[in-house]
Write a structure and sequence with these properties.
Keywords: Amino-acid transport, Membrane, Transmembrane, Transmembrane helix, Transport. The chain crosses the membrane at residues 37-58, 70-89, 101-124, 130-150, 162-181, 193-215, 278-300, 330-351, 385-405, 411-432, 453-472, 484-503. Its main location: membrane. The protein is mainly alpha-helical. It has 22 helices and no strands. The longest helix has 38 residues, at 114-151. The chain starts with 16 loop residues before the first helix and ends in a 15-residue tail after the last helix.
Length: 518
């Protein structure tokens, strides 16, 4: 069953079904609806950013399974991610609001469960998003540190190795820039979002071709497609266990596509274009991500040397690959450093778009009164930008990164919420759609027809599976320093969310609040 036809108009005088549907759902049009379907796609695509995720966690893939985990794990994670995305797209088509996931949960869980469902989904979503921004911008700070190290001679040539305080300072500077950019009108952000998408696409193609072409030593096709690395040095010998741990790189990369939902109140014909943004961002990321993995892996000839913390890049595998390729061919690694700069720009755009998505979630969640000082965070300025929500997101992301100064273990536990916490938020509305709302859910223009429930159940089961798998120990024997604190972090968030609900929120939070007359 499709949505009713409406006669709301956008700025060009043409019919806009997204604007009409928003009013039907009970919300005023407060943000400027100026994004095209490509702009909506661009935000999600630049947050997924295969250059960001694969570059950052390529070490993990090499260490746990090597080429086999990298190649085949990517398609496994990509296939199931598309299933999750399809379910989300179907719901997004029916409920195109900036609140996204938590609004969906409220509508799908029914009136009795709506407040609790939206409360828990919203907090997992927003904290997961903040963790993503923290992780992305911190990975950029680390890459900048590696670029500086290689530019000053490398680890074996007396290069400058920044302290953790310098890395945190760089991280703070990056967040400051991202908050400033996100204070600009959405038309400017739309331009940067489209530029980011093009940069990622072109960057992947250039690096995929250039790196193996420049490298003086290349791996064989047999190595790239069949070599399974079991020499991880972490006391894990089971191939199945190793392969599962290697999936982390792929699943971490393929997150953040809920941005298309959070941008729907600024997207033209959002009930159609929001779902298109989600699906196209995932599909194109899977294809281009595989190209990138393939090209880089053809330049891998010695896994242990790439992971060695005493190499020129300090154990940063892709940086070492780029640097060695150009140094081996031309006698210096300048070209490799420039290639790392291409990746750094992609990560910068990824962080920028992540703050954009964060701020829209904060805006929507506070509009419904779910956050402390809600009236402050959902205000928009005269350029129709939720300016306070932008700066709040940047400040919280910086505070989350400060845990790195105390303990790397604590920091890793917190950013693990970026994957597991966010996917739990993805799965909750899908779960409500296939259970409580199985018969009552009214589809929008984009729908999966009779396959909607089946696809939804597969999505929910996949999220449950990865939540368990990524909570497993990654090093044996288990000590305080090697324990995987992911279940502690995610469990802690769950306890805080439920406790706050029982103690206070259940008395006043009623779920999404409409702000227009019925």
């Amino acid at each position: 069953m499709g949505l009713p036809t409406h006669t709301a108009q956008n700025g060009n005088g043409s019919l806009d079904t997204g604007n009409a549907r928003l009013k039907e759902l009970g919300y005023k049009q407060e943000l400027k609806r100026d994004l095209s379907v490509f702009s909506n796609f661009a935000f999600s695509f630049s947050i997924i950013s295969v250059l960001t995720g694969i570059t950052t966690l390529y070490n993990t893939g090499l260490n746990f399974g090597g080429p086999v985990s990298l190649q085949y794990g990517w398609f496994i994670a990509g296939g199931f991610t598309m299933i999750v995305g399809l379910s989300m797209a179907e719901i997004c088509s029916s409920y195109p609001t900036s609140g996204g996931l938590y609004y969906w949960s409220a509508k799908l869980a029914g009136p009795n469960w709506a407040p609790f469902a939206s409360w828990i989904t919203g907090w997992f979503n927003i904290v997961g998003q903040w963790a993503v921004t923290t992780s992305v911008d911190f990975s950029l700070a680390q890459l900048i540190q590696v670029i500086i190290l290689l530019s000053t001679g490398g680890k074996n040539g007396g290069g400058y190795e920044a302290s953790k305080y310098v890395v945190i300072a760089i991280h703070g500077g990056i967040l400051l820039l991202h908050a400033a950019l996100n204070s600009l009108p959405i038309s400017v952000l739309s331009f940067f979002g489209q530029l980011a998408a093009v940069w990622n696409l072109v960057g992947v193609l250039v690096l995929t071709i250039l790196i193996p072409l420049v490298a003086t030593e290349r791996a064989s096709a047999k190595f790239v497609f069949t070599h399974f690395n079991t020499d991880n040095g972490d006391g894990i010998n089971s191939k199945a266990y190793i392969f599962v741990l290697g999936l982390l790189m792929s699943q971490y990369t393929l997150t953040g596509y809920d941005a298309s939902a959070h941008m729907t109140e600024e997207t033209k014909n959002a009930d159609k274009n929001g779902p298109k943004g989600i699906i196209s961002a995932i599909g194109i990321s899977v294809i281009f991500g595989w190209f990138y993995i393939l090209g880089i892996t053809f330049a891998v000839t010695n896994i242990s040397s790439l992971l060695d913390e005493d190499n020129d890049a300090g154990g940063y595998a892709i940086a070492e690959i780029f640097y060695k390729a150009f140094k081996g061919r031309y006698g210096n690694g300048v070209g490799g450093i420039i290639c790392l700069g291409v990746v750094a720009v992609a990560i910068f755009f990824c962080g920028m778009s992540s703050v954009t998505s964060n701020s829209r979630m904060v805006y929507a969640f506070s509009r419904d009164g779910a956050m402390p000082l809600s009236s402050l965070w959902h205000k928009v300025n005269n350029q129709e930008v939720p300016i306070n929500a932008v700066w709040l997101s940047a400040v919280i992301s910086f505070c989350m990164a400060l845990t790195y100064l105390g303990s790397e273990v604590a920091f890793q536990a917190m950013v693990s919420i970026a994957t597991i916490g966010l996917y739990i938020a993805y799965a909750l509305p899908i779960f409500f759609r296939v259970t409580l709302a199985r018969k009552s859910f009214i589809t929008g223009p984009f729908n999966l027809g009779r396959y909607g429930v089946l696809v939804g159940w597969i999505a929910v089961l996949w999220v449950a599976t990865i939540s368990i798998l990524f909570s497993l120990p990654v090093t044996y024997p288990i000590t305080n320093e090697t324990l995987n604190y992911t279940p502690v972090a995610v469990g802690g968030l769950l306890i805080l969310t439920i406790s706050s609900w029982i103690l206070r929120a259940r008395h006043w939070f009623k779920g999404p609040i409409t702000n227009v007359e019925s």
